[in-house]
Amino acid sequence: MENLILSVVKPIVDFPDNVRVETKEEERHVIYKLITHEDDIGKVIGKNGRVAKSIRAVIYAAAGQKQQKKVYLEID
């Protein structure tokens, strides 16, 4: 799942080397925390959060097929 997040986010940012994903797995859910360069946060969120919503839709759809736990994506 981390590779999917990175493959979606890296092409849209100016500093792809600074993009990383941290995973926190708990009993009922998994939290993926997307960390980017501070100048790229606006590109990842997008106008009115449209890019972030799109990224989350792709991640949640892929996670629904692979995991039985609820998946969350935090953008930081």
UniProtKB/TrEMBL annotation:
CDD domains on file: KH-II_YlqC-like (cd22533)
Gene3D superfamilies: 3.30.300.20
UniProt keyword annotation of RNA-binding present: yes
Main localization, broad class: cytoplasm
Signal peptide span: none
A single GO molecular function term of this UniProt record: RNA binding
GO biological process: cell wall organization; peptidoglycan biosynthetic process; regulation of cell shape
Subcellular localization(s) per the UniProt record: Cytoplasm
Highest taxon above the source species: Bacteria
Keywords, alphabetical: Cell shape, Cell wall biogenesis/degradation, Chaperone, Cytoplasm, RNA-binding
Record carries keyword Oxidoreductase: no
GO cellular component, one term: cytoplasm
UniProt record similarity statement: Belongs to the KhpA RNA-binding protein family.
Assembly mode: Forms a complex with KhpB.
Entry function: A probable RNA chaperone. Forms a complex with KhpB which binds to cellular RNA and controls its expression. Plays a role in peptidoglycan (PG) homeostasis and cell length regulation.
Protein name: RNA-binding protein KhpA
UniProt organism field: Lederbergia galactosidilytica
